[in-house]
Every structure is written in C-alpha cells, then in structure tokens.
Prior knowledge:
Layout: H1 5-27, E1 31-32, E2 38-43, E3 55-63, E4 69-79, H2 89-94, E5 101-107, H3 108-115, E6 129-140, H4 142-170, E7 176-179, E8 182-188, E9 200-209, E10 214-217, H5 218-221, E11 225-228, H6 236-242, E12 250-255, E13 275-284
Antiparallel strand pairs: 1-2, 2-5, 3-4, 3-6, 5-6, 7-8, 8-12, 9-10, 9-11, 9-13, 12-13
Amino acid sequence: MFISIKRVQILLLSLVIINVLITSCNNNGYDKNENGLAYKIIESKKGREPKLTDILRMNIKFISQSDSVFSDNKLFITELYQPSFKGGIEEAFALMTEGDSASFLIPADSVFKYIFKQTIPPFIKTGEKIRIEVRLLEVKTKEEFEKLANAEINQYIQQDKLETENFMAQNNLSGTLISPGCQFIILKEGSGSFPAAGDTVRIRFTAKIITGEIFESSKKIGKEFQYVMGAPEVPTIWDISTANLKVGGQYRIIFDTKCRKGLPGTNKLKGPGPVIYDVELVSINEKASV
C-alpha cells in the first residue's frame, strides 16, 4: 500500500507533539540542568545574579511528595558555597536572580544527608523527591551584608539599652555594667569563695524576655546547668557573671541582643531584644550549697 510523503510527515509531526506532551506531563513543567537538577522558575525578576561567597536572604520551604510541608523558613540567610553534590541546592540558588521565585526537585536522601545532615525520617519515602520552593529576597556581597548587619546591631543595641533602663527604673533595680550590654544585679549574697578558672560550677537559672515571659530554665530542662569556668565553649560573659557570685548567692543579669548569643535557650528566640537571667550558684567543684 502506498503512503504519501505528506501523510508520513503528518504522522511524524504528530508523534513528536505527543512525545513533547508526555514529557511535559511527566516533568510537570520542570527543566533539568546539566547535572540533573529539576528546576522551574515560577517568577523571574531578572535581578542581581548571585556569585560564590555572596550572602543570600530567602524564603525556603521543603515539601514532601505527599504535599506535606515539613520545613518552612520565612527568612533563611546563607552564603552561596560550591555545590555539596551534583544537582545540589547550591546549584538551585545559582540558577536564580534577586527577586525570583522557583521550585526545585531534589532526591530525599540527598536533602537529608547534605542539607539537614540527618537520616530520612519515617514520613519520607525512600527514593522520593523533595520539592523545595524558594523566593530569593536579596543578594549581597559579604562586605555589603556585614555593613547592613552592623547597622542593624547598633540599632538593636540602642533599643535594648532603652528597654533595659526602663525595666530597671520600673522595678527599682540598681546594677553594675560588668561589660557593654550586660547589667549585673546581686539579689542575694552567698558565702565562701568566688569560683575561679578551671572550677566546675553548677547553677540553677530562669531565662526570660524583658516582658517576663520565660523561654528557658533549669527546671524546664530537668537538670541544673553545669560547666567549667573558662572553658572555650562557654560564653565569656557567662564566666564573668558567675565569677562575681559565691555559693548560695543569686544574681540577675540583663543581656542585650549582641551579648545573649550562645546562652542557654537563646537559640529558641525569634527576634532581637534584651533577655534576663536569674541565676543561683549551687556549688563549686561539687561542694554543697550553704
């Protein structure tokens, strides 16, 4: 049977169209880069392109294959590093420009191994793809970011100082500025000697924001806080504070935003502001409290 060239051309064209449609349906509109990273630019602003070592501010959301959001960061800040693996999230960020929003598909095992650095949780199926939705809010060089960060910190410091002064005036408190941003107030004198570098101390504490809401305490944790005076992992200002207290004594210390970093429980706080720690020194080198 004779088939005309025209009919063959129409048939081939139909096959090509069907193949394109099938591929499009399978990929749900996602393209792939040379390393197999599936990406879809949802909104392109054609803004500033990020470069290695730039600081990126973004919204980033992690969604399972069952459309369950298991991590939603309204403001995520990161440096753009070399990709940790082929098709990694760093490649995803590099495909975007400032102001863009995009969606990426990355294998779950890679997401949890390289991004979350943990084993895949039970609610994630092995072999599934994680959908990562990103809006790139801002691209800055390190120098630009540090300049802005310092300006923000200085603004916080001034606000913290005002809030601390108001709190102390309203509660008729008188303290000693033992370090910039750290007001020290003795509530109860202890007895015996002061702790020194190398001593193991045990303390009870309650930590709250300036409005009085408790965010951490040794009671909450279920144990007293123990550490070695002068240990590198302990914030210096914590050492300075405890060094001014005898066993059985109690003090209150008010830290501003800049000084509170690394103190117990502060990783739970969302925004800036002064924090108050009420502390009791229970023992030095396991000597009983008086």
